[in-house]
């Protein structure tokens, strides 16, 4: 931004209002065209600064949108991987339950077989003892 031109201080020895008006006129404070030109320059600088700020905001917004898209994609990917992992876990749990059920069935069958075998051994022993 350009700075306003340096103003010369009015002489302190000005004797009256006429001298004050003349001093203002020398500084350009009473010239309407100069005042309008300064206003236009100030507005132009303000507009330029606002446009620069707008471009910066748009650039940052673009970066945020790109980052948002990247994180959304990563989130979707992780969500899909989580769903697949949960499905695998359910299948493994089902497999372990089936294996546990089969092991319990075999244990029951073996206990029954052991019970029958002990009964047969006891019967054989009883028959051998009674025949002696």
TrEMBL record:
Keywords: Coiled coil, Nucleus. GO terms for biological process: nucleus organization. Signal peptide: none annotated. It is found in: Nucleus lamina. Residues 33-95 form a coiled coil. The keyword Transmembrane does not apply. It comes from the Eukaryota. GO terms for cellular component: nuclear lamina. Belongs to the CRWN family. This is Uncharacterized protein.
């Amino acid at each position: 931004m350009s700075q306003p031109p340096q103003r010369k201080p009015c002489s302190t020895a000005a004797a009256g209002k006429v001298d004050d008006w003349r001093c203002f006129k020398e500084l350009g404070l009473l010239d309407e065209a100069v005042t309008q030109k300064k206003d236009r320059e100030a507005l132009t600088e303000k507009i330029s600064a606002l446009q620069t700020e707008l471009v910066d905001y748009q650039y940052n917004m673009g970066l945020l949108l790109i980052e948002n898209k990247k994180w959304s994609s990563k989130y979707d990917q992780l969500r899909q991987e989580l769903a697949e992992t949960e499905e695998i876990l359910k299948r493994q749990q089902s497999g372990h339950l089936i294996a546990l059920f089969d092991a319990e069935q075999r244990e029951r069958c073996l206990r029954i077989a052991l019970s029958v075998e002990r009964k047969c051994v006891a019967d054989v022993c009883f028959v051998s003892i009674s025949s002696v």
